[in-house]
Amino acid sequence: MAEGERVRNRPSGSATALSEAYDTALLDLDGVVYAGGEAITYAVESLGRARDGGMRLAYVTNNALRTPDAVAAHLTELGVPAESGDVITSAQAVARLIAEHVPRGARVLVIGGEGLRVALRERGLEPVESADDDPVAVVQGYGGPELPWGRFAEASYAIARGLPWFASNTDLTIPSARGIAPGNGAAVEVVRIATGAEPRVAGKPLPPMHRETILRTGAERPLVVGDRLDTDIEGAFNGGVDSLLVLTGVTDPARLLAAVPEHRPTYVDADLRGLLTGQPEVTGAEGDGYRCGGWTASVRGDGLALDGEGEALDGLRALCAAAWTRAGTEASALDAGKALARLGW
Hints:
The protein is α/β, with parallel strands linked by helices. The protein has twelve helices and 19 strands. The protein has a six-stranded parallel β-sheet. A five-stranded parallel β-sheet has the order 7-6-8-9-12, with helices on both faces. Strand 13, helix 9 and strand 14 form a beta-alpha-beta unit. It starts with 17 loop residues before the first helix and ends with a helix. The model has no long low-confidence stretch (mean pLDDT 95).
């Protein structure tokens, strides 16, 4: 498919519920299923109904700290029954990537948490703690807020000796109960500055993570569900699959309207209830305006305009069509402030 054919200029519609149109939901966790460790409103009920209707639920996270067993136990405690096989982590994706480049049984220096160690052992590799333990590679993943500064030095020593460096993901931030904290990407930058090296990265939005997810789930018609444009939605774009953006996490409507093509989701909804319904069509063209529900969106001067009334999400979908069509392959620079204010954002 040519790049121009992949430029999305409006959210898609669906005549049937998304849980019926797709066989597997590939769900991000933070900002989608839970926030600060607690279930997001409507998440438990919506996922239960989707699962009861026959949709497989898989949980896909860039966080390499916790093991699949731990994640599944947490989900089950929240009221979302899950087993370890339902959880796919960037630790698993990077462990497979490393195993393709080093001999079975090789030692790998781990800068991170238990999730990485378990994933490496699953691939027949031996995690070690020091650059002096004769590792053949270095892997770095989120190790939690208590990860000692000396661990970054250990990675730097090994990389300076010429060892290949792998990273589970490069998310600069991670949500926590107290707010936004530095993520593994920030820690990777520390080692990058010290060594001048570049890691091979496995996590979303890159292909190794999508490959790991499909291999483990066997999904034939997957739907990526996420809250982040630069990981979840871009990962779906890179994998050539459809996506649903929910507005329960880090992406707000203004960021959505300004999105570049690889960050434009197939569908947009408020929360996980969107899995249980069809999606309205956006109709119209640039000269006449874009219509969804009771709203019509258009470009006037250097800004977006919105006329009509109805459900706020329909207005946002219409605005997406106006902004994305005008922007084409670029990020939209249109002023959306007044239009979004009409919708309560």
